[in-house]
Amino acid sequence: MTTTTEARPKLFTGQHLPLVLGVIGLVTLGAFENRAVGTALPTMVREFDALGSFGLANAAPNASYLISLAIAGLWSDRRGPIPTLRAGAISFTLAQLLVGTATAMPMVIAGRLLSGLAEGLLDVSLMVLVARALPAVLRPRMFSLFAAMWILPSVLGPVLTGVVTEQFGWRWVFLGALVLLIPSWLLLRPAMRQSADAPAPERTAEDAAELAAWRAALPWALAASVALFSMTLAGDHLEAHPFLGGTTVAVALVVLGRAAVRVMPAGTFTARRGFPAVVAVRGLGGAAFAGVGAYLPLLLTLQHNFSPSRAGVTLSITGVCWAFGSWLQGREHGIERVTVLRTGLAFMTLGLAVTSLLAWTDTTTWIGLIGWGFAGVGMGLSSSSLSVLTLDLSDQSNSGRNTSAGQMAATMSIATALAISGTLLAFNADDPQPWVFGAIVTAGSVLALLGYLAAPRARRSQ
User: Fold this and answer.
1) Domain ranges of the chain
2) Which residues, at least 6 apart from 25, have a Cβ–Cβ distance to it below 8 Å?
3) The model's pTM
4) Which CATH class for the 264-462 domain?
5) C-alpha distances out from residue 104 to 49, 173, 456, Å
6) pLDDT digits (tens, 9 = 90+) for 327-381
């Protein structure tokens, strides 16, 4: 008797290879653009004699990103990922053209707003396209590639941007990005045609009600965007105007909290079993890791006498360890996905606790940096696992909204953590004591621990 077994699908095969390469191209392009701005922006504001617009240019894409996520989630579920992906590519093109040909700072800021809009549209539509075009068994490896594509931009992006800026001018940093967009788009065409030809998912009464609720939440997403924008600007001027800045941050936090209640899935704040718990854990993990990472270079500079270039080692550790953790979760380990998630959060909790020694004690810095590396591995394990769980707990009728909800939870929780930490630091700006940084890093470890405790609920409800 002859038995046959069905061949296990592979990611880098003729069938899936164009999609994989196209997605890699777009993710890498977005990563380089993200890393390049920080290097080129100081030169830009000096050229336009608009140093006061530096904070505005930095905050603009964060504000438009939130409302873009909400729109992208609704649009992708109603019309499929193709129109959303196309709008994201057009927005990205216009953003690069506006900034690259800017004659004044308002054009740069407008381009930055469009850049945030493009990022949200592309993030959600690519996730939905992957969900529809790839078998579920290949998704973990695909998401590990997402993380890996940030390594080169994180390590080489600032250097490459600096060289291009010095040799050819900062404009080519943005105009040159369009070169990679064209081949990436062409590679995605087969998967886009396949998705467009697929039958539309059936709409149930429950799904129609969820769509209506999501549409009603769009104004709250806009309110959250405005609150995030205001909070960022207030934080930049907190030292000069402490009362006005502190009041603005407090009001923005209230608006952001109210908006989060309206746009997040019901049960998120109690980590209800199923997808709400996934959203809750994504918010906790994102705030824990990003809230600490933003202040580590400053901690090393002030308390351990690192030069700015040496303090930047934390960014390299982040990129490499995050990608390594994401690669680990993509292997065939035969472990339940929630177990991988909890392992990542355990690594993050322990790693951040060790990292806090940099603030609380005079321990050798390499011990704290090893802790940060463990936290990075944990973030890679947990972040990619949450992306897999999001799609596992979704279907074609709601994968866009669910992807959007997870991304919005991370964005709002990170913004809240940074606002609170920034306010704490601003009121101690004259002579920041070790306890300020110690409290920030320890709070990150506590948030990761809460995520670890909530993670077992990130299973499909019975």
Assistant:
1) 15-139+149-195, 264-462
2) 180, 181, 183, 184, 187
3) 0.82
4) mainly alpha
5) 9, 17, 52
6) 888 876 667 899 999 999 999 999 999 999 999 988 788 999 999 999 999 999 9
